[in-house]
Amino acid sequence: MKQGIGCAVVAGMAAPLMLLAAVVVLSPGDGAAQAAGCGGAAVSPRISAPTQAAGFSGEQLANAAVLMDDAKKLGLPVAAQVLVVQAAIGESSLRSIDYTDHTGTVDGVAVTIGILQQDDSYGPRSDRLDVAKAGTGFLSRLKDVPGWESLEPTIAIHRVQRNADPQHYAKYRDAALEVVQALSGAKVSAGECGGGAASGAGDDLPWGHGPVDVSSDLGMYTRECVDFALWRVNQAYGSTSAPFRFTNSNFRGDGGVLGNAVTWLDGWRAKGWPVGTAPRPGAVVYYAPGVGGSGDQGHVAVVKAVDPDGSFLEEGYNGSLPPEDHTYYTRTVQDGTPTAFLYVPQKG
């Protein structure tokens, strides 16, 4: 590794996740009232629905309208309407199907079925194939997810569905927004709200798909763990383009460089920023050499979300084995694994 800016490989990473606190905001349209913030009131599907939206039509849009109505009946906000439609697009393309893929099949029998691919914990087969009952089942569980309103949509859905790939639902977000907008006649767009979530949105490192190990605008080698972690720190302070607020050379403030992952704990303390042992969204995860599979330069990453059991979702760069090294990764980590958590003070 190059002195001062490298980081070591951490083995055993999982599939990518993203976490960005998100909300749906409605603008007035066709008589719909504007929603306010994360808790904007649910919208009603129109009687005269469009014939096509986001590539869906007929029965698919009728099913989406039923799901939206489920959320409204439960007193949930428009954000929940978009989430249940997004989940249904990702699970079944808005169709109530009686089959599934290989992951939902046991001994040749489809275990997960219906518009939301639900198992028997949701009730008998007939209930899971009933769009309204399936939607109510999903939404009832969504309500029990702590802070679901401020989770990135794919993560909120995953907390209910437990898909093998939590990132699976992200690509259906735009389609869900379009469907809800078309069915309600309201202007729907994605916005952001707080809730203690980490900054950033998945693999958004500006130079993350460029050359490896050339100098970045942060003074780090590109696509290293330290490069990504320092990018997240800058994002937390609203610094998203050059000249960046924090760089390798100016972070500490004592003339020293922030350097390799192994020296980040000392750098944090030199700056006077807090250090602890509990994961928090947005905190830098610090692994001393040899901890958590790290090499002799250690490893740093970022906490994206904390689960109720104390485990957390971690994101970073250069944490996978070749040929996936120097790329974005996520994994679930038990909170006792890292050496420390380096907290980023709130912007002030």
From TrEMBL:
Q: Which UniProt keywords apply?
A: Plasmid, Signal
The protein's name in its UniProt record: CHAP domain containing protein
Gene3D superfamilies assigned: endopeptidase domain like (from Nostoc punctiforme) (3.90.1720.10)
SUPFAM superfamilies the UniProt entry points to: Cysteine proteinases
Q: Which domain of life is it from?
A: Bacteria
Tell me what organism the protein belongs to.
Answer: Sinomonas atrocyanea
Which InterPro entries is this protein grouped with?
CHAP_dom (IPR007921), Papain-like_cys_pep_sf (IPR038765)
Which region is the signal sequence? 1-21
Outline the extent of the Peptidase C51 domain. 200-345
